[in-house]
Amino acid sequence: HSKEKCAKNIRIALQAAGADVSKHPVAASDWGQTLEKNGYKKIKPAFNRPQEGDIYIIERTSGHTYGHIAGYTGNGWFSDFRQKTYAVYKEKDVKYSYYRLDS
Fold first, then answer.
1. 46 part of a folded domain
2. Residue closest to 4 by CA, chosen among 61, 66, 60, 59
3. Which of 47, 61, 63, 95 has the maximum number of C-beta atoms within 10 A of its C-beta?
4. Nearest to 87 by CA among 62, 58, 67, 64
5. CATH code at position 74
6. What is the C-alpha end-to-end distance of the chain, expressed in Å?
7. Residue 90 has what pLDDT?
8. Nearest to residue 44, comparing CAs of 100, 90, 86?
9. How many domains is the chain built from?
10. Is 50 exposed, middle or buried (0-12, 13-18, 19+ CB in 10 A)?
11. What are phi and psi of 46, to 5 degrees?
12. E strands along the chain, which residues?
């Protein structure tokens, strides 16, 4: 289960891959610009056919002040834990932003 460190873990993974995360946001829901600055492109969600390196962001909800961010490794979705699915929030009307490294 989440330890509320999803953005930190994604930052560490991106940094290890050579991304510039020097001015990263704290909240997971605010990571879109940082991803785009590092060559990611916002695309239509592709949860049914994710590619290694894909990242999604869940916007803030009333129950989750900072939102959520997770990356696809080829072996599932990871954040600060191995997720069984991308749908980790139970609220209705959860808004997702989906990013893929532009090659």
1. yes
2. 66
3. 61
4. 58
5. 3.90.1720.10
6. 33
7. 87
8. 100
9. 1
10. buried
11. -125, 45
12. 40-43, 55-58, 68-72, 77-78, 82-83, 96-101
| CA distances to 32, 43, 51, 76, 90 from 22, in Å | 14, 24, 26, 27, 32
Q: Mean pLDDT for each consecutive 10-residue tract of the chain (103 residues)?
A: 83 95 94 97 96 97 93 95 92 94 85
Provide the token pair at 15: 């940094």
Quick one: which of 13, 31, 15, 14 has its CA closest to 67?
31
Say if residues 58 and 29 touch (Cβ distance below 8 Å): yes
Asked if residue 1 is part of any domain, the answer here is no
Domain of residue 26, residue span? 6-101
Q: Whole-prediction pTM value?
A: 0.93
